């Protein structure tokens, strides 16, 4: 006569039961992730924009989604481009038709790659406008935690300058001198 085994504390799981449990867990995790992403509150930051009279930069609040520095930098520049497209010609930060082709980060430096429209010569006339426009971009992006400097490229290539007045060979850091209390100046 075969020996009787005592009843198991935990009955052996059945394959169908395991499958149902796994499906339930996966659906729960997906729902939790989706709800958390949907409820992630936008964070408020600022766009730096050329002020009327073109002698300093103003701040304009903007709400953003995204938590990674590269995502935030991209969202800020895209918002800056949209805002620039609706600005008066002398207050635009970038030429009409400018597109952001990519954003990459290495250490605390972010590289912004724009299309060739960004290098439209007629747009960059005047040292003060060029300085304000470049630092509107740099100051906007360097608000992102972890980003200290910005490198501007056109179609993936380094550029010395956009209009001959602001050197872009090296990454640029924030310049507070161009805010309402100061005039365009600083490093040229």
Topology, element by element:
Blueprint: H1 15-38, E1 43-50, E2 57-64, H2 69-85, E3 100-106, E4 109-114, H3 127-141, E5 149-154, E6 157-158, E7 172-173
Parallel strand pairs: 4-5
Antiparallel strand pairs: 1-2, 3-4, 5-6, 5-7
Walkthrough of the structure:
With 188 residues, this protein is of the alpha+beta class. The chain has one domain (43-178). Helices cover 30% and strands 21% of the residues. The chain contains 3 helices and 7 strands; from the N terminus they run H-E-E-H-E-E-H-E-E-E. It has helices at 15-38, 69-85, 127-141, and strands spanning 43-50, 57-64, 100-106, 109-114, 149-154, 157-158, 172-173. Strands 3, 4, 5, 6 and 7 form a 5-stranded mixed sheet that branches. Strands 1-2 form a two-stranded antiparallel sheet. A hairpin with a 6-residue loop joins strand 1 (43-50) and strand 2. It is elongated. It starts with 14 loop residues before the first helix and ends in a 15-residue tail after the last strand. The model is unreliable at 32-41 and 181-188 (pLDDT under 50).
């Amino acid at each position: 006569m075969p020996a009787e085994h005592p009843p198991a504390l935990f009955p052996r799981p059945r394959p169908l039961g395991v499958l149902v449990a796994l499906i339930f867990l996966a659906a729960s995790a997906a729902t939790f992730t989706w709800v958390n992403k949907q409820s992630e509150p936008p964070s408020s930051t600022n766009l730096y924009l050329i002020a009327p009279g073109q002698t300093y930069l103003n701040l304009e609040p903007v709400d953003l989604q995204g938590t990674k520095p590269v995502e935030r930098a991209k969202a800020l520049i895209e918002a800056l481009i949209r805002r620039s497209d609706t600005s008066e010609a002398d207050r635009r930060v970038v030429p009409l038709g400018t597109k952001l082709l990519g954003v990459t980060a290495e250490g605390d430096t972010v590289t912004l790659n724009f299309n060739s429209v960004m290098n439209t010569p007629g747009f960059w006339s005047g040292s003060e406008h060029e300085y304000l426009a470049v630092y509107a971009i740099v100051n906007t992006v360097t608000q992102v935690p972890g980003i200290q400097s910005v490198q501007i490229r056109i179609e993936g290539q380094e550029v010395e300058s956009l209009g001959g007045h602001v050197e872009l060979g090296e990454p640029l850091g924030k310049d507070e001198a161009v805010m309402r209390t100061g005039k365009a100046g600083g490093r040229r």
